[in-house]
Structure formats: C-alpha cells, structure tokens
Amino acid sequence: MNIGKQYKGNDDPLIFCEVEDLENKAIFFDILHVNTAIQYVEKWKDLFGKLLSFAPQYIVLTRLLSGNSSTLITEEMVIGKKTPCIIINLEEFLAFFKHLGYAMIFISECEGKLSFDKKIPRKYQIPCALNLILEKI
After folding, report:
1. In what order do the strands lie in the sheet with 66-67?
2. Beta strand extents in the chain (DSSP E only)
3. Rounded CA gap, 54 and 25, in Å?
C-alpha cells in the first residue's frame, strides 16, 4: 500500500511502503513517525522491534493513548463505534524505549477529549492522547 506516494516530490527522501517490504534490507531512517496507530496493535513491542531495526535517530509518536493508568486493553469510541485499543502505561512505554537506547525529549497533550466505554472506571481512563519525541542516546 503506497498511500501518499503520488504526492511525493521527485527529490524527497520519503519512503511509503509496508514494513515487511523493507525487512532484510540495509535501509536506515532519520525519523520514524507513527500517528495514532500503536494503540490498535496488541503486540506493539514486536512492531517496534521491527521498526527500530531501521535505526531511526528520532521517533515521533502522535496521538498515542498513554498515561498514568495501568496498561490495559479496552474499547475506544470511534465515530460512534466501539474499537478495541490498548492504553499503555507511560512509564512502562518509556522504560521499553530506554532499554533500547532512546530517551524522551518532548511530550505534549493532544487537544480533544477521548471517548471510552462508560463501564471503564475513571482510574483506568486517560484524559487525552499524547505526542512524544524520543531521541537515540
């Protein structure tokens, strides 16, 4: 799937492809950007294991469902429908990346409230998604 490839300029060093298309190739990225996707990947650590093989200097994560709650699989309301997702404990998330040689250099809260199933106790909900930038140390 090469969504966006048609908008790429001739000299732009952007690559649009599937992760599997790049496996076993000597390709390296300066920046890895993941937008509002990790919360829908149950085995997110395995996915990052593949993505970090491209040795990015920076990892930019936008609209990440993470916070001070426990890591849990739940449901998020997306356009009026329940969608399975995982809320990742921020401390656990950052510890995973620290072990791999990355440190957080930026964090901010996303605008807009999240809509979770009303059955989920408030202590397990997070008030907003996060934007993070991690740097290889």
Report:
1. 66-67, 81-89, 72-78
2. 31-35, 58-64, 66-67, 72-78, 81-89, 102-109, 130-136
3. 9
Task: Give the span between the Cα atoms of 54 and 28, in whole angstroms.
Answer: 4
For the chain, list residues with pLDDT below 50: 1-3
Q: Which of 28, 87, 35, 90 is nearest to 63 (CA)?
A: 35
Using one digit for the tens of pLDDT, what is the confidence trace for 80-113? Answer: 888 888 999 999 999 999 999 999 999 999 987 7
DSSP state of 101: T
Residue 98's pLDDT is 97
Classify residue 4 as left (phi > 0), alpha (psi -120 to 50) or beta.
Answer: left
Q: Which of 70, 98, 97, 104 is nearest to 86 (CA)?
A: 70
What are 81's two structure tokens? 């429908």
The residues near 83 (Cβ < 8 Å, ≥ 6 apart) are: 40, 75, 76, 77
